[in-house]
Specification:
The structure is a single chain. Helix 4 links the parallel strand 1 and strand 2. By secondary structure, the chain is α/β, with parallel strands linked by helices. The longest helix is centred in the C-terminal third of the chain and has 24 residues. The protein is built from 18 helices and 10 strands. The strands form 2 sheets. Strands 1, 2, 3, 4, 5, 6, 7 and 8 form an 8-stranded mixed β-sheet that branches.
């Protein structure tokens, strides 16, 4: 009896150990735990051997900050790799973009007539800046949308010609909201390669993802190249402001193209945000417009996705995931966006408040460029199974716009770049 009583008597050491274990599990589940000694050390070697899939995600924000970040990233990649012709698309395996981010993704990852990316990051930013009024929200878009985004011509038609989703160098994901089905729709190169009914012209994809009906724009009525799939689209920002989670899910569930990606530790993710609405308090009207409320909701959605993704990466978030977020007044000028790259911004963590980042946005991009280059070099030296096996496009069908040569650009690209 005494022995049983002694066994049942609580032990201070056991209680303390149980409390510590529970605290660790609670912290890991809710916040992500920062103590590296609590993790098994065997995983990183396996990750290095298998390789990491490189993902670029761009929010449906103004586009100026993301464009400036891409210019900085491309310049850093070129300098560190020693290749003056290096492009963003050379160092990523997938790009996801919503709204203006979708346009940037399309510009950087669509194949040009020379087989290289259609635009450099600097050229894409100049184009976006020059035609900003066509992409921004507000009354400026009212009355001109038909001429800009119309199927019979317009800016996107001039930029992309007859290029379709199949004509991208790497997989792309560009969302919109389909009013016909009352559900988000994601334009995907993987789907386009699988079936003609999901292949869309890049110009119309860009028009769909930046068509913000709350800002006075009409929905974009469009159809696939073969005419089988029809969409009545409004902006991607309404459906998916921050597409990072969708990009990660796509990679981890697509074993045909990304056979080596078993978890987030096998990814390298760059997520480019926009201006933080909270950076300019008191600037909002007493009764925000529907467009302003949509932007606020989108910004909040982007923060939630960022926090969830950062927690999912756990101990790898310092090396495998970077988020660039601007804390400047909106709308963002190009000069303000470039200046934001020299700032140390405040990072937020779910349930843990905010703290000042140790590095500037520009320094984060430079460090991540080094990681991208290391992965790029590792693949070139490796002789075993590839980290990424992008499925090639199917032969052109009679109703497809594909041909044995890449589509010509209606206007000389140089005129649009400058």
């Amino acid at each position: 009896m005494s022995s049983a009583a002694a066994w049942m008597e609580p032990s201070l050491d056991v209680d303390k150990l149980s409390h510590e274990i529970f605290s660790i599990l609670e912290s890991k589940f809710l916040f992500g735990y920062d103590e590296p000694k609590l993790y098994l050390p065997s995983t990183p070697a396996t990750i290095t051997a298998a390789g990491r899939v490189r993902v670029l995600s761009i929010d449906a924000a103004d586009g100026a900050l993301a464009g400036a970040a891409l210019v900085r990233l491309e310049a850093s990649l070129s300098k560190q790799s020693g290749d003056p012709a290096a492009r963003v698309a050379d160092f990523f395996d997938l790009a996801a973009g919503s709204g203006a981010g979708g346009i940037l993704s399309a510009l950087l990852f669509t194949r040009g007539s020379d087989g290289r990316p259609l635009f450099s990051a600097a050229e894409a930013l100049r184009l976006l800046t020059k035609h900003r009024r066509h992409f921004s929200s507000g009354t400026q878009r009212k009355g001109i949308l038909r001429g800009i985004l119309g199927r019979s011509g317009g800016l996107f038609r001039r930029v992309f010609g007859d290029a379709t989703l199949r004509d991208t160098l790497k997989p792309v994901l560009i969302p919109c909201y389909d009013l016909a089905t009352a559900a988000p729709f994601v334009f995907s190169r993987a789907d386009a390669v699988e079936a003609d009914g999901y292949d869309f012209r890049m110009g119309e994809v860009c028009a769909a993802t930046c068509a913000d009906s709350l800002a006075g724009a009409a929905p974009v009525d469009m159809h696939s190249v073969d005419g089988r799939t029809r969409i009545r689209a409004v902006g991607g920002g309404l459906a998916m402001w921050n597409p990072t989670a969708v990009a990660i899910t796509h990679v981890l569930n697509n074993r045909q193209e990304f056979p080596a990606a078993a978890g987030v530790e096998d990814l390298l993710v760059v997520s480019l945000g926009g201006a933080d609405a909270a950076a300019s308090p008191g600037k909002l009207p007493a009764l925000p417009s529907a467009a302003e409320l949509a932007r606020i909701a989108g910004s909040a959605h982007a923060d939630v996705v960022d926090q969830a993704v950062a927690m999912a990466f756990g101990e790898n978030r310092a090396t495998n995931y970077v988020r660039i977020q601007g804390h400047v007044a909106v709308p963002v000028t190009t000069a303000a966006a470039e200046a934001a790259l020299t700032d140390r911004v405040v990072d937020s963590s779910l349930f843990r408040g905010r703290k000042l980042s140790e590095r500037t946005n520009g320094e984060k991009l430079d460090l991540f460029a080094a990681e991208l280059i290391r992965e790029h070099d590792r693949r070139r030296k490796r002789g075993d199974a590839p980290t990424v096996a992008i499925k090639p496009s199917t032969p052109p069908s009679p109703c497809s716009s594909e041909s044995t040569t890449w589509p010509a650009i209606v206007l000389p690209v140089q005129e649009l770049r400058n």
